Amino acid sequence: MKRFIAPFLLSVFFTLNLFAQNTVTVQTDSGKFIINKNIYGHFSEHLGHCIYDGIYVGDKNKDIPNTNGIRNDVADALKKLKVPLLRWPGGCFADTYHWKDGVGPKDKRASIVNQWWGGITEDNSFGTHEFLNFCKMIGAEPYISGNVGSGTVKEMTDWVNYVNGAPAASPMSKWRVENGQKEPWTVKYWGIGNEAWGCGGTMTPEYYANIFRQYATYLTDVNNTRIFRIASGAGGDDTQWTEVLMKNIPLGMLQGIGVHHYAVINWDHKGSATNFTEKEYYTTMREALRMDDIISHHSAIMDKYDPQKKVALGVDEWGAWYDVEPGTNGGFLYQQNTMRDAVLAGATLNIFNNHCERVRMANLAQIVNVLQAVILTNKEKIILTPTYHVMEMYNVHQDATMLPVKVETENYVFENGELPAISASASKDKNGITHISLTNVDASKAKEVTIELKGGNYKKVSGRILTSDKLQNFNSFDAPDKIEPANFNAQIKDNKILIKIPAFSVVVLNLQ
């Protein structure tokens, strides 16, 4: 008998131990902080085909259905995505953009050369009116990045008065009315420059802190619109930049501070977006998961000067950055989007959710046709990328109460390195539904996970999964639905859920 009992007991032990190695514990009755919907924001820059041919095809285009030049298919997809916040016009482009060139009759607008991205000539047919009306069309709050690098304080204050002023309050608001927009748009979010340490002026943090104070002095509330001033923050883990800004800018002037972080294999050789090895996948995910430490380090600095966490940390540029697709303009940053990007997006959003006490804004770079885009277009065709589907699955977290999670996970081991395989975040929405999002970063191994629910009593669970049979798979214009969410079956018993998550997959569970 012993020869039969021992293997059986060993099997039982091994099975239980396998579940125990991956445990997600959710404190369902301990939520304190709201996951600000603006964490799910996006970024649109005058770069490549993000604006022109992506969002905007011109109001005289008869081949692609549009409303005042805005692609209807793109707008409809973004409505479903529930885009809460959209940053524009850059990026590096912002600090060369003079907004007055982009208003008024289109046939009289000055053309400009996009010196940052491809050296192409733009006719300014997409300007302030077009952007703000697009935001209204898709239900997103606008986030305008002002020109500090080559602009002036007056230029930006004129912009604020133009978009926010009462119809007859100032010359700028009167000009807006003359240009066809009577009612103000009430734009709340304003970035004072972009990457001031680099393309925004190559400034020192001390110099930029003084420049910010100058601009903030004159960027005042207009027509009962409370201005939310966002400082140009650090690149990656440059906490010295954050230290100087938090030390030298009065808190009353500062509502948000940014940070930018891209998951890049190597800045000189970024690698293919689709034809990549597991080593390149591992390196990309390692860089993406650094986001947790980057946020923690900046938050610790901010806590010294702002213990009440009044100032938001905004990750207003994030995502994966690869080499451009073969045969495309190197300055257009057009790349495909695979399951690697889906896992990266899910893991990153979990990090943001879990840091929502301080992180209250984030902007994926970029929304259409650039970098880790959620939408790709080609003339009349459109693709919803794997990243789109993850952000659509995760939008259940928007403005929900974050629930603390504890994750005990096996590691994804590759060569001499290792990363935590399972990441998770959880929330409870206003209807009392609990949502748990999970990613399995491991490139080859499925993970069995035990979810323990503390402090609640749950009877029903449903779910969705984004997965594929190959890490390098993507949606193409010939096969636009190759990767899309599917139902995920799970069962709950005694407030425990046992699930198996395939390699490189993303799962969202809904519990009642």
Q: Care to count the β-strands?
A: 27
**Which strands sit side by side, in order, in the main sheet?**
2-5-8-9-10-11-12-13
Count of helical stretches: 11
**Compute the gyration radius: what is it?**
24 Å
User: How much of the polypeptide forms β-strand, as a percent range?
Assistant: 25-35%
Poorly predicted runs are 1-20
Query: What value does the average pLDDT take?
Result: 95
- Which outline best applies? globular
Note the gap between the termini.
45 Å
Structural class of the secondary elements? alpha/beta
The biggest beta sheet, please?
A: 8 strands, parallel, barrel
Helix content: 25-40%
Labels describing this entry:
disordered N terminus, 512 residues, 11 helices, alpha/beta, 8-stranded parallel beta barrel
What would your notes on this structure say?
The longest helix is centred in the N-terminal third of the chain and has 20 residues, at 2-21. The protein has an eight-stranded parallel beta barrel with strand order 2-5-8-9-10-11-12-13, surrounded by six helices. It has a six-stranded antiparallel beta sheet with strand order 16-20-21-27-23-24, with helices on one face. It has helices at residues 2-21, 72-81, 128-138, 153-164, 171-178, 205-218, 239-248, 278-289, 291-305, 339-354, 386-394; strands at 23-27, 41-43, 66-67, 70-71, 85-88, 112-113, 121-122, 141-146, 189-192, 228-235, 256-263, 312-320, 359-365, 375-378, 381-384, 401-403, 405-408, 411-414, 417-420, 422-428, 434-440, 447-454, 461-466, 486-487, 492-493, 496-501, 505-511. α7 runs parallel beside α9 (291-305), α8 runs parallel beside α10 (339-354) and α10 packs parallel to α11. The protein has eleven helices and 27 strands. The radius of gyration is 24 Å and the shape is globular. With 512 residues, the protein is of the alpha/beta class.
